[in-house]
Amino acid sequence: MTAGLKGLKYFVRTFGCQMNENDSEHIAGVLEREGAAAAGRPEDADIIVVNTCAVREKSEEKLRSYLGRLASLKKRRGVLVGVAGCVAQLARGDLLKKRPFIDFVIGPANYAELPQVLALAAEKPGVRTQWSPEWQEFGAETAVRASRVSAFVPIMEGCDNFCSYCVVPFTRGREKSRPSSSILREVRSLAAEGFQEIQLLGQNVNSYRDPEKARSFSALLEEVCAVEGLDWVRFLTSHPKDFGDDIIRTLARRPEACRQIHLPLQSGSSRVLERMNRGYSREGYLALASRLQERLPGILLSTDVIVGFPGESEEDFERTCDVLRRVRFANIFSFRYSPRPLTAAAKLPDDVPLEVKRRRLIALQDLQRSIQIEINRSFVGREVRVLCLGPSVKGGGRFAGRSEGGQIVNFEAAGDPVGRFVDVRVTGCGPYSLHGTSGPADCTPRRFPI
Ligand code: SAH
Ligand code: SF4
Ligand code: F3S
């Protein structure tokens, strides 16, 4: 530890995906290594870093309102305000021009330089954003982890797919895979620290290619699962076009690989998928989903869906609903299309009226809610193995955890089950979670009953 920031307090606010959450853990780690300590709220901090997301218009709206709050905070007291993450990468100088109260801007490839950027910003505001063509190394030791039970481990970053609606290739640059030796070192050290679960992260985890040994994602997954002391391994996000049989074989062979896959669909219409440049058809997606469900009994799938992409007809939308009925996802994340800067789709007319987008989103979510209730009800009366992550946000002395399939489970337990596996007898459910009562905690994972 150096003492450059000793006596100062920092606050990091994170928007966006798990990659950003993990980056924020590293931002906190870099600041603490320099001697700073965490503040519980922005009002008590000397340094505030806002880690931003640019993926949808709504993400930027949320950011605008948060930055407004910080502007008024800054009028009241001296504090260094920095913007990090994907908007920082994308908007660069603009952010500083439009919002002079911001002291520094730092892109995702530059977090290791945070101490130098802070020192400069304390003298005069500056911009530091750029992509790096190489993997930027942050070891396990740099992170201040949000959980002591489940840890994020990035394995690749960036994207070469250029889906026509998506800004991520412009915020994270081209695909960069992390050397497997470094990934395994981090995973082993997390297992030795007592973490039970690892979540491998990347914009497209399954296009991972080890720069040292040219190994594939399935080979890496196999090695991560074999690390002593690890119980559950998850990964996200998988691209359907890169989901080869080798990955299915690894999932079938390794009990540590959780039977849960996030597999973004985006649209159930081949015509729309082609215009989205997704690289698969409706039939291709349905065939992959059936293969996964047949070969990995009990697997739960989740997905992302966009409604109102340019030119999406009522019939296209109905085809998306039809895929939801056929696949029966355990969870979906659904969004109204919004045009993003630099993307190919931004040049198409955004011709689905806002009220039609709204109506389709509500119809899709209503349909999904009824499917989820049915899936969750099928667990009532059964025993489900749960990794306890901490106290339940619902309070009442209850605990919360995740099942192997990724469902949130709130439960009552005797003693302290945090960080341990428990068998929860499911007594009820809602569309988004299960609840019940746990038996005694132990440490061996087991598949939930199918
Ligand atoms: N790498 C992942 C997810 C990237 S962004 C993947 O390939 O699927 C997360 C989700 O945001 C996407 O899956 C998509 O559903 C949504 N999204 C991205 N761009 C969008 C846009 N312009 N409008 C609406 N939703 C968008
Ligand atoms: Fe965006 Fe498509 Fe890449 Fe996912 S695969 S990050 S949606 S461009
Ligand atoms: Fe958002 Fe960047 Fe993630 S744009 S979704 S934070 S990669």
- Overall geometry comes to globular
Indicate the CATH architecture of the largest domain.
Alpha-Beta Horseshoe
CATH C-level class of the largest domain is Alpha Beta
Distance between the termini: 49 Å
Instruction: Report helical residue fraction.
Output: 25-40%
Which stretches are low in confidence, meaning pLDDT under 50 for 5 or more residues running?
446-450
Tally the beta strands: 19
Biggest beta sheet attributes: 6 strands, parallel
**Are any ligands bound, and if so which?**
S-adenosyl-L-homocysteine, iron/sulfur cluster, FE3-S4 cluster
Strand content: 15-25%
By DSSP (H or I, 4+ residues per run), the number of helices equals 13
Record the strand order, biggest sheet: 2-1-3-4-5-6
Structural class: alpha/beta
Tell me the CATH superfamily of the largest domain.
Answer: tm_1862 like domain
Q: Multimeric state of these chains?
A: single chain
Can you walk me through this structure?
This protein is an alpha/beta fold and 450 residues long. It folds into three domains: 9-128, Methylthiotransferase, N-terminal domain (Rossmann fold); 143-377, tm_1862 like domain (pyruvate-formate lyase- activating enzyme, Alpha-Beta Horseshoe), CATH 3.80.30.20; 383-442, Beta Barrel (OB fold (Dihydrolipoamide Acetyltransferase, E2P)). It has 13 helices and 19 strands. A six-stranded parallel beta sheet has the order 2-1-3-4-5-6, with helices on both faces. It has a five-stranded mixed β-barrel with strand order 15-16-17-19-18. A hairpin with a 3-residue loop joins strand 18 and strand 19 (433-438). The N and C termini lie far apart (49 Å). Mean pLDDT is 93; it is low at 446-450. Bound molecules: S-adenosyl-L-homocysteine, iron/sulfur cluster and FE3-S4 cluster (F3S). FE3-S4 cluster (F3S) is lined by residues 16-17, 19-20, 53-55, 85-86, 168, 171-172.
